[in-house]
Target: Acetylserotonin O-methyltransferase
Amino acid sequence: MAEQLSQSELDYPFKLLEYFNGFRVSKVIFSACELGVFDLLLQSHKSLSAESVSQELQASQDGMERLLDALVGLDILDVEIIHGKALYSSTDVANLYLAKASPKSLHNMIAYQSQTIYPLWNHLADAVREGKNQNEKTSNMSSDQIFETLYRSEEEMLKFMQLMHATWVVETHDVVTAFDLSPFKTMVDVGGCTGGLARELAKAYPGSTVTVFDLPKVVEMAKKHFSVPDDSIAFQEGDFFTGELPEGDLYIVARIIHDWKEEKCLQLLHKLCEQCKPGGGVLIVEAMLNENRRGPVMTQLFSLNMLVQTEGKERTPSQYFQLLSSAGFKDLQVRRTGKCYDCILGIK
Model:
């Protein structure tokens, strides 16, 4: 049952008003990242006035002061009043996740949300009415050209790959350790993009080899922009729908199944099962809905995002079980991580 509201909440809709203003909160953070607020405060090593910040970032003092105050209200920045003057400083969470220089920075994720996702969500009502993505309205691309839209230029491809890479900054450890994957000595990350998840797999299971399998242009961009010294993973080019898959004991399909309608999901999973040797398996990594449809809210919002941007959706564990069983996998197990992304392991 839904939570019963108190009389005070019925008299004044605190939660609804908070929800109504949610887009404003997002844009405050998006704009601060775009302007370079968090990078400046991290580099300064001291508190700064709104005047100093506005001068450094070539912004109006009045506008910057309002933005900084809003960030303080959101507990993202801190402020101290000294001799009647407000001095602003970064919090640990801002330094760790919002400044570009941090190894755990989510700056690229935020930039993609602001520049690509936010305009799509302006057409959410249209997506619900029409039952299809809104790429035609925001990028003049056909609704069935999902990855042609995402990869329509080198700049757009890099933005998308940076988003995917940033996602694994905070998710990978819980995902790769949800199950003990050490029995699988040859792992293939299907559609593994930049290799962010694959590198964490290689770190967690040093006795296994890990290969990222993705489109030639994605592999080229990954090597150009996301390579690391003494890389522990390999890359192989190909198309997982039309091409031949590398041999592997375990196929990782992370944030792939949710892009497609059932028939395409089954096409890919059948192909993976045929390629698997007996005892091999597939690991699905996705944001999963609760069976009772009551959450998680983040995943429900993700599912709406798949509506406005792709042809897929987020699913419940039982819906993934059905797909995997139909494709020929058995011994299905689900692990909730408590974070955004959960895991299902299936064995052939």
In short: The CA atoms of residues 57 and 229 lie 34 Å apart.
